[in-house]
Amino acid sequence: MSEQEARGGKILPAFFVEPVQLGEEFPSGEWPLHMTYFPPVETTLRPAHAEQLRRYINPMEPFMATIGEDDKFGPKRDVPVRHLEHTPQLMAVHRKILAVFQYLPHNAQYRMPYNPHISIDKDDPRAQKGDTIEIGGFSIAEKREGRATWQIVAKIGLKGAAMATDARIIKHSERNQ
Q1: Could you read off the pLDDT of 19-31 as tens digits, one per residue?
Q2: Integer Cα distance of 122 and 70 in angstroms
Q3: What is the CATH number of the domain that holds 81?
């Protein structure tokens, strides 16, 4: 076991709507606009995890998901979110991540049933009900034990996606033009 693995940490697969680069860091609680695919996994990212994710997910084509209703999540139901409508592709990515991460330590209650959503700031204007998100991949963020920041440690793209970020919002008003 490497020193990094011995120190422990958390990893979280998420797509980011705002551009994030490999190696970029951000403080806990100050994540860019994103949707998580799986609850935090209590380990550091191993190269084998990233390789397996790429093998399962790279063949998928980019796809669209529509933003739905507002809700509140968290133990105190005080975290504002916007649901994403379930699509076969969104659920397929979740199942493929589940195939890789399900045996790693995590809190399974936060993945059953899978409820895709975007974590937002209150009254966030960037992603509104009816807007569409074009999804071209996702990132793996890692928080090493003893650190207050998360770092992007892997990027997993979908086949043919040529996007500056993992996903982009297409406003409802733009889609109808």
Answers
A1: 889 999 999 888 8
A2: 10
A3: 3.90.1140.10
